[in-house]
Amino acid sequence: MVGAMTPRITARGPVSQALQTAFRHAATLDSPEMARVVELAGVALEEERDLLTDDDLQLALFMIYGLSYGDTVDADDEWEWNPQLVRARRLIERCFEAQLRARIPVDDLPEPDAEHVAAFLFALTQEDGGPGLSRYIARTASREQLLEFVIQRSIYTRKEADPHSWAIPRLTGRAKAAIVEVQSDEYGAGRPQRIHAEIFARTMRALGLDDAYGAYVDEVPAITLASFTMMSMFGLNRGLRGAVAGHLAAFEMTSSIPNRFYGNGFRRLGYGDDVTEYYDEHVEADAVHEQIAGRDLAGGLAEQHPELLEDIVFGAKACLYVDGLAGQHMLDCWQAGRSSLRAGVAVAA
Questions:
Q1: Is the pLDDT reported for residue 347 higher than 50?
Q2: Where in the chain is the domain with CATH 1.20.910.10?
Q3: Are 1 and 76 contacting, i.e. CB atoms less than 8 angstroms apart?
Q4: Quick check: 117 and 299 in contact, CB under 8 A?
Q5: pLDDT single digits (tens) 33-80
Q6: Is 130 a residue whose pLDDT tops 60?
Q7: Is the pLDDT of residue 286 over 90?
């Protein structure tokens, strides 16, 4: 099938514009349109841009990953593994990973056994100091800011669990069993109506928002896209299987308490269970998940493959770092009296 780029996504620069143009054509090995994407990506990366805040390259990576997730771009299915597209993707990914590793030092490591790894990760996440955004939402955020928060989080949450699920076939033994247990809950344990992404969709509808995936891509900044593309990069690359395990562990360990605050913020402004169900669900679920992800997934993987320990810690720290930047962006904007969205337009429910 060959289609047009989904209209709701607007290019943010020459690389994403060239990618949109290529996606309007059939996937061929000698596509001049995709060759142009590779060329422009190389030029952009030579400029040593900060990929965490680069709208053009983050949107390009988001659209490339969209071929694997579905429901993001309309394009010939053959583009997904087209050699030229993979070349463009790897150019961006290598630079993205290198920048993350340069900013996120892994200077101390626990012993490579489940208990030491779990204790290390729990200490790491407790030191994070990340509840600033969640406490602001609980106590101070306006209705408009709560809507912006949901819009920002929809980029990941309408695909909740999917980036980490890429790791399942890359793991074995204790670590594999652990991630399947966590992901099964994320996907509703066999009950479609309990899939967490679908519960979040109900929250969006109750707020008067569009729950179609990607409906608000144009509204969110590069750092919000980076949070999603980073975990996608970890999950989609076999060589980063340690990083995706560490990322999921940290993600679960920093979920339960903030979600309690988020739910309280919506209740403070009079919203009911149709809005807060998603957050209330995660207060209990993630209190269990953090134990499984810390000990059995991250710790079990470190025991089985000690050579992956450094990447496990890197993935956990990367989760805290990038999600912290995304949250701080919202908090800084709101405290300065402006919108956290790119367009800066107030959203009405």
A1: no
A2: 114-335
A3: yes
A4: yes
A5: 999 999 999 999 999 999 999 999 999 999 999 999 987 888 999 999
A6: no
A7: no
Tell me how far CA of residue 313 lies from CA of 72, 171, 226, in angstroms. 31, 17, 19
- Which pLDDT tens digit goes with each residue over 197-229? 999 999 999 999 999 999 999 999 999 999 999
Choice between 319 and 256, residue whose per-residue pLDDT is larger: 319
Block residue for tokens 């790791």: 167
CA–CA gap between residue 46 and residue 41 (Å, rounded): 9
CB atoms within 10 A of CB 184: 12
Check: CB of residue 216 under 8 Å from CB of residue 155: yes
Tokens (6 digits) for 14: 């020459």
Q: Beta-carbon neighbour count of residue 201 at 10 Å? A: 20
Nearest to 347, CA basis, from 168, 194, 144, 114: 144
Residue 247 scores a pLDDT above 80:
yes
Given a cut of 50, is residue 349 above it in pLDDT? no
Scanning the structure block, which residue is given the tokens 């790119």?
342
d(CA 210, CA 118): 39
Q: Topology of domain 114-335, per CATH?
A: Heme Oxygenase; Chain A (1.20.910)
